[in-house]
């Protein structure tokens, strides 16, 4: 039987040799390798500064701290995301305000965001979910019109583009994650990117003890520095990112060709203005399908096909957010999506035979 995992990091000789070089150099902590990775990643995106940190959650935290988001401030974001997006707002003592998603793209709906803006609103935190850019034309306009900061959570969207421009370059500041399941990895890791010199300087201070010069501390900061070991992996991965993204896009195309023919399964919608890099390939399991979403997951697992739900509980329904007093009856599109979505394997290690097997299995399960 086939065994097709839902995610698989690809580590080659380049990553291994890069790490060995760092180990041999004895310079294990943050140093030249990190600086090179920051430069190369920023250059790849077409942005001025990259500030490498320990993970994507830290990148979001540092980004919001650099903007001086704080108590009394509201930041509008999506409830249909990984918890870290919203938590990064809570870390500042600020309030996440949830706006609903567009049910077609699963991304934040600009019209819903507009309705949530008030005098306390300081920023919009947009997430490019599953590798599909949010509507950055609309969000840029809203941010400019209302004088709000625009923050991009690009944890799932390395190399994704909106109107030919890479995500991470639209807002004031953006955050990436290099967790092993992402389109590229450093083991654990993250990157803050910005075109703003002042924000870059503050982000650098915050990740490094607020240290302006050796033992001169001008800000409250942490140690959130990336290691040279992680950066060596990242540098090798970055060179392969575009090729891997093309394979994800091709796999998604083949999956959609097959899945479009199956009643009760809705393949993902792609906004014609974007390059969707398919961090996840997410279908909707509709009521007409003979199995519900959770039953389908079990059956796929029995056939050796990994699948996952991103995300089964919208952030405002999480126990912790419920304790904070968020009502249940908001963001109905996000709630609905959380019941229907199912992610199927799309990563670059999935081959043509795997895709045919996935489609045939879904077809069989659809005619039970
Ligand atoms: C949308 C989103 N934001 C933030 C994060 C946090 O990144 P990390 O796991 O590297 O802390 C993730 C990844 O898990 C994510 O998917």
UniProtKB/TrEMBL annotation:
<dbReference type="InterPro" id="IPR000653">
    <property type="entry name" value="DegT/StrS_aminotransferase"/>
</dbReference>
<dbReference type="GO" id="GO:0008483">
    <property type="term" value="F:transaminase activity"/>
</dbReference>
<dbReference type="InterPro" id="IPR015422">
    <property type="entry name" value="PyrdxlP-dep_Trfase_small"/>
</dbReference>
<keyword id="KW-0808">Transferase</keyword>
<protein>
    <submittedName>
        <fullName>DegT/DnrJ/EryC1/StrS family aminotransferase</fullName>
    </submittedName>
</protein>
<comment type="similarity">
    <text>Belongs to the DegT/DnrJ/EryC1 family.</text>
</comment>
<dbReference type="GO" id="GO:0030170">
    <property type="term" value="F:pyridoxal phosphate binding"/>
</dbReference>
<dbReference type="InterPro" id="IPR015424">
    <property type="entry name" value="PyrdxlP-dep_Trfase"/>
</dbReference>
<keyword id="KW-0032">Aminotransferase</keyword>
<dbReference type="InterPro" id="IPR015421">
    <property type="entry name" value="PyrdxlP-dep_Trfase_major"/>
</dbReference>
<keyword id="KW-0663">Pyridoxal phosphate</keyword>
<dbReference type="GO" id="GO:0000271">
    <property type="term" value="P:polysaccharide biosynthetic process"/>
</dbReference>
<dbReference type="Pfam" id="PF01041">
    <property type="entry name" value="DegT_DnrJ_EryC1"/>
</dbReference>
């Amino acid at each position: 039987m086939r065994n097709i995992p839902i995610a698989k990091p690809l580590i080659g000789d380049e990553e291994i040799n890069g790490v060995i070089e760092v180990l041999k150099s004895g310079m294990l902590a943050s140093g030249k390798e990190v600086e090179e990775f920051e430069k190369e990643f920023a250059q790849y995106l077409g942005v001025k500064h990259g500030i490498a940190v320990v993970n994507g959650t830290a990148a979001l935290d540092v980004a919001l701290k650099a903007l001086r988001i704080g108590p009394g401030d509201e930041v509008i974001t999506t409830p249909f995301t990984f918890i870290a997006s919203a938590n990064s707002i809570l870390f500042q003592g600020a309030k996440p305000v949830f706006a609903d998603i567009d049910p077609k793209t699963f991304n934040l709906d600009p019209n819903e965001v507009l309705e949530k803006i008030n005098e306390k609103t300081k920023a919009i935190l947009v997430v490019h979910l599953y590798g599909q850019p949010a509507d950055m034309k609309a969000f840029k306009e809203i941010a400019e019109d209302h004088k709000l900061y625009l923050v991009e959570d690009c944890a799932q969207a390395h190399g994704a583009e909106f109107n030919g421009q890479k995500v991470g370059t639209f807002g004031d500041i953006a955050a990436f994650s290099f967790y092993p399941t992402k389109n590229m990895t450093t083991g654990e890791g993250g990157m803050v990117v910005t075109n703003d010199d002042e924000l870059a300087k503050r982000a650098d201070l915050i990740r490094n003890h607020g240290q302006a010069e050796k033992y001169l501390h001008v800000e409250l900061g942490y140690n959130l520095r990336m290691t040279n070991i992680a950066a060596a992996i990242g540098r090798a991965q970055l060179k392969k990112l575009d090729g891997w993204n093309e394979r994800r896009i091709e796999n998604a195309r083949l999956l959609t060709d097959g899945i479009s023919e199956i009643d009760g399964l809705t393949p993902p919608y792609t906004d014609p203005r974007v390059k969707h890099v398919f961090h996840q390939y997410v279908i909707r399991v509709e009521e007409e399908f003979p199995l519900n979403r959770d039953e389908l997951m079990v059956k796929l697992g029995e056939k050796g096909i990994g699948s996952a739900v991103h995300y089964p509980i919208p952030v405002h329904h999480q126990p912790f957010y419920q304790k904070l007093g968020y009502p249940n009856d908001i963001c109905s599109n996000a709630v609905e999506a959380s019941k229907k979505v199912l992610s199927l394997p799309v990563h670059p290690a999935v081959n043509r035979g795997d895709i045919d097997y996935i489609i045939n299995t879904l077809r069989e399960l659809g005619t039970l």
